[in-house]
Amino acid sequence: RYDYKEMLHNSTFCLVPRGRRLGSFRFLEALQQAACVPVMLSNGWELPFSEIIDWNTAAVIGDERLLLQIPTTVRSIHQDRILSLRQQTQFLWEAYFSSVEKIVLTTLEIIQDRVLEHSSRSPLMWNSHPGGLFVLPQYSGFLGDFPFYYATLGIKPYPKFTAVIHAVSPLVSQSQPILKLLLAVAKSQYCAQILVLWNCDKPLPAKHRWPATSVPVIVIEGENKVMSSRFLPYETVVTDAVLSLDEDTVLSTTEVDFAFTVWQSFPERIVGYPARSHFWDSNKERWGYTSKWTNDYSMVLTGAAIYHRYYHYLYTKFIPTSLKNMVDQLANCEDILMNFLVSAVTKLPPIKVTQKKQYKETMMGQSSRASRWADPDHFAQRQTCMNKFASWFGGMPLVHSQMRLDPVLFKDQVSILRKKYRDIERL
Fold first, then answer.
1. In what residue span(s) does the Exostosin GT47 domain sit (predicted)?
2. Dihedrals φ, ψ of 326, to 5°?
3. How many CB atoms lie within 10 A of CB 16?
4. How many Cα atoms are found within 13 Å in the side-chain-facing hemisphere of 241?
5. For residue 128, what are the contacts with CB-CB under 8 A and spacing of at least 6?
6. What are the helix (H) ranges across 130-231?
7. Helical pair 321-330 and 376-393, crossing angle rounded to 10 deg
8. Would 161 disulfide with which of 80, 241, 261, 409, CB 3.0-4.6 Å?
9. Sheet architecture: strand order including 37-41
């Protein structure tokens, strides 16, 4: 008469009575079925991962000897508390129980925290978003070093950024876009330093070839000259924010300032200019990639984007070698993989600032970087990457958005003197 899964899906509370053995499969069923709060009726049963998970924030612990009191108990729980319980059940399910791989990884991480107790995760890391698997204690034992806890701790990110410019073309002319970009970024009031990652096959240019700037410019050779080296956790980067740039990106100082100002309010996300989107191709039954100019997007490319430096560490340590090797062999898709990672961690879309429609269209037609974007195989490769990445992540983590943040009074009919970012409108 009743569909069991539909009943669970429509229930606020799900009874979890004692099982035949040490646990009951109904417990995981309750977590899985649309935030149904498990009501535990098994005295003495040790809940899974109770060493690190505070189950009082996600489940109602009842006494099986007082079964008839359970209806009164659950009816007395306030709606705000119910919402909190349901949200926590979904977080815990997604973070630690939604796949065999996550269950195994959680087990191994708990063992590691036992062995390396001095660098173990705090209870807050395990019991709050994004969870212990995405918060690596090897990076830092201080919660304030992770962008996810700024709001909880009431702190703000360091008010400067480090620009990382990915260079793949030899320096042959003083009119090359990379030099104009370097000067524009260096003039930003928020720029602490500029790191030029030299991934070109030619030798490093002499110091006098680089323009004089008011901020330090550090040129280093990329490790093995591969694409993934742009996301290595370089010790040179000491600011919270990283401004990732391609060598041929065209940005003004005003655009850089505005993007960083926006990022300071969303430090856990990618904030930037060039946006792309994904879609499900029902005919081919696979994920597709599109660069069509629409209001909808799910990726902000790292050719002109700001994000927290922790994502460099997470990209290097969390992403499997097989995916990074694929990126390096294709010399493509590193920006897509970074977007997959950040969306998988935050469950949020990136943030696009201003229109900046002509991102690659304005670039030099003769540079090696630009020619790669014109390669017909480039688009097909990115389609393939989308599906490879989605397969490894166990689904599509990217989130669609239509939000775009423009400067206040950007197109209003008011005096130019009233506008904070006056130069953007002139582009």
1. 4-77
2. -60, -45
3. 26
4. 31
5. 91, 148, 149, 152
6. 150-153, 177-186
7. 180
8. 241
9. 13-17, 37-41, 60-61
Return left, alpha or beta for 348; rule: phi > 0 is left, psi -120 to 50 is alpha, else beta.
beta
Q: What residue has token string 């073309």?
A: 169
Question: Using 50, 70 and 90 to split pLDDT, how confident is the model at 410?
Answer: low
**Catalytic site includes residue 335:** yes
pLDDT digits (tens, 9 = 90+) for 323-348: 999 999 999 999 999 999 999 999 99
Collapse the DSSP code of 241 into the 3-class scheme (helix H, G, I; strand E, B; otherwise coil) and give the result: strand
**Domain spans, the chain:** 4-100, 153-405
Single pTM value for the model:
0.88
For 124, residues 6+ apart whose C-beta sits below 8 A from its C-beta are 143, 149, 152
d(CA 264, CA 156): 8
Between CA 334 and CA 332 the distance in angstroms is 6
How far is 103 from 395, CA to CA, in rounded Å? 17
Picking from 13-17, 125-129, 180-184, which range would have the lowest pLDDT averaged per residue?
13-17
Please state which CATH number belongs to domain 153-405. Answer: 3.90.550.10
DSSP-assigned beta bridge partners for residue 376: none
Catalytic residue among 80, 248, 335, 377: 335
Determine the Cα–Cα distance for residues 230 and 235; give it in Å rounded to an integer.
13
